[in-house]
Write a structure and sequence with these properties.
210 residues; alpha/beta; D-Maltodextrin-Binding Protein, domain 2; six-stranded mixed β-sheet; five-stranded mixed β-sheet; 9 helices; binds 1-O-pyrophosphono-5-O-phosphono-alpha-D-ribofuranose
């Protein structure tokens, strides 16, 4: 029997991803004993795992180097890969939002936005092109995006909002919501056909234990 390979997103999703796999009967003991080994296995179920940078997870899955991936919807929207999104895992919930200074609240339709700072340039581009039919300059940042409108780098930002605390403490407000975000399970299109029974079995086991 061949191994089913699962790519997990490193970072804040990792711990909960392991938890939902364990609850579905997957043996993650090797994965939890942190070592420098990159690929870890559950020999009994013939499953192997690896942790990758979140934005790389959809890449491994699209190319079939991993059959399954667990990753945030934010990364899936940004990467735009051709995958089956089979399950909303329901954790790591937040919202992808347009946010900006309080003065812009309720004025989104009457003002012209010139520059948008974000860690999600594709999501921002699609939103401004299709929803607002505006051509804006997208400035890609790597973190602490809320800084941009405070120091005059951009008019607004596109970013994740979880508790809303970062916005509030910096005098920023949500101007529009683009999408609801949470962790998702994705499957390679070919794997879904050739390993249908094992993969749907695993999806069902996870779904039942969510
Ligand atoms: C994320 C996100 C917001 C913040 C939202 O940033 O980009 O900045 O969390 O959370 P809140 O609504 O609960 O305040 P992260 O912590 O990943 O750091 P980063 O800004 O450096 O990417």
């Amino acid at each position: 029997m061949r191994y089913i390979t699962i790519a997990l997103a490193k970072g804040r999703l990792a711990e909960l991803s392991v938890e939902i796999l364990e609850r579905a009967g997957v043996d993650c003991s090797e994965l939890k004993n942190s070592s420098r080994k990159l690929i870890l296995t559950d020999e009994k179920n013939k499953i192997r795992f690896f942790l990758a940078k979140p934005s790389d997870v959809p890449v491994y899955v699209e190319y079939g180097a991993a059959d399954i991936g667990i990753v945030g919807k934010d990364t899936l929207l940004e990467e735009g890969r051709d995958l089956y999104e089979v399950l909303n895992l329901g954790f790591a919930k937040c919202k992808m939002c347009v946010a900006g200074p309080k003065e812009l609240e309720g004025r989104m339709d009457s003002i012209t936005i010139t520059r948008v700072a974000t860690k999600y340039p594709e999501v921002a581009r699609m939103y401004f092109r299709h929803k607002r039919k505006e051509s804006v300059e997208i400035i890609k940042l790597s973190g602490s995006v809320e800084l941009a409108p405070l120091v005059g780098l951009s008019d607004v930002i596109v970013d994740l909002v979880e508790t809303g605390r970062t916005l509030k403490e910096n005098g920023l407000v949500i101007l529009d919501t683009i999408a609801d975000i949470s962790a998702r399970m994705v499957v390679n299109r070919v794997s879904m056909k050739i390993e249908n029974e094992r993969i749907t079995g695993l999806i069902e086991a996870i779904r039942k234990n969510l």
